[in-house]
Amino acid sequence: MESSVCPFCHLSVPSSELQWHANSHFEDEDKEANDMELGNQIQIASSSGSTDVVSISSLIGLQTRSNFYHVKDGLISLLRNCLELEARHNSSVTILSGYVDHFQSLPSVDVGWGCGWRNIQMLSSHLLAHRKEARKVLFGESGFVPDIAFLQRWLEIAWESGFDPPGAQHFNCKIYGTNHRIGTTECASLFRSFGLRARVVDFGPKESELLYLSVPGSTLGQPVKQRNAVRVSGPMDKYVHRQQGLNKGRHFCHSLHNGKSDNSKGKSEGPQVLIDWVWNYFSDKGLTISGSSQVVVSDRAPLYFQHDGHSRTIIGIQVKHQKNGTNQFNLLILDPSDVSPTHGTVALERSLKTNVGWQKLIKRGVHTLKKPQYQLCYIDPGIASGEELNELKTINSIFFEL
């Protein structure tokens, strides 16, 4: 790939990214100035013993738009075109979320620790584009996705407001300016603090059930009852309130019962539970699979997808009907850690526009789900208030056995 040298930092970058990279230096100057001002306010407030370290009004005024590569035609639109072309040659059904921007980790900024924040940014880009009620409450009605530093500050405000006390305790209520990794519960806490109905779902082996969360009120889970809280340090999220589901029934998609899954036996049976759940989520049980090929855009938001060591964003799911009567599933995923010239947003845009190689960048089959535990965060429509908002301060989840 042809490369060029940045005239400001003398770094060699792909020629197609040179203009965007060079412009980012000027954006970084504004960002550094705002970060310095925010840091000064934090020091002043901390020394005075203020419990509200920085007022929300000050944060709204200081926050800056996150720097990312904007795809002119929109990634989802480009992906839909490719999927429709693909569907002409096979019997498949694909369900996509609406508009989503790809926020990738940036070298020297957040590589190795920022995936959780980038996934929050991807979910935020969708919510701001598709949900009017979310746009009115997110980030002080700024209308844009803030950079990581200000998302960190919003999370601190959530903790200060009483959301997820065990999580706040684990981080000592401080995360601004750090490179601490975050997980699904931090994602849920941040969105819940704005009144959004963020829900958490756990998938894991039955023997680990006591270590998970379980949330009442979810539209997709099973009825639950209270149980004693358990403090654990697991590979997912740490130190959270936990409850147990009365029924751990698998959430199979009824429209798939006439076809056999090629992932229905042996070790692959577990991951299929997660796949079925994701299918039901995006279809909302309202789509019946037929023999015809189609691509459908759902009104569901993307999913925050966590496993041990990494998190990504699920933007849709595809099922292909095989000639032998089985169904082959693919999760459609945006990965924030794809930062190389051959896997970044620019490369993804190019592959979608040319309809070449995009499958390797986005599709993930059931066979890739090799982790023993997974966790999802999804966001139901509407804005909570009053007692419901107060209840959202306790982070729980629904448990499904893999």
UniProtKB/TrEMBL annotation:
<protein>
    <recommendedName>
        <fullName>UFSP1/2/DUB catalytic domain-containing protein</fullName>
    </recommendedName>
</protein>
<feature type="domain" description="UFSP1/2/DUB catalytic">
    <location>
        <begin position="91"/>
        <end position="377"/>
    </location>
</feature>
<dbReference type="InterPro" id="IPR012462">
    <property type="entry name" value="UFSP1/2_DUB_cat"/>
</dbReference>
<keyword id="KW-0378">Hydrolase</keyword>
<dbReference type="GO" id="GO:0019783">
    <property type="term" value="F:ubiquitin-like protein peptidase activity"/>
</dbReference>
<dbReference type="Pfam" id="PF07910">
    <property type="entry name" value="Peptidase_C78"/>
</dbReference>
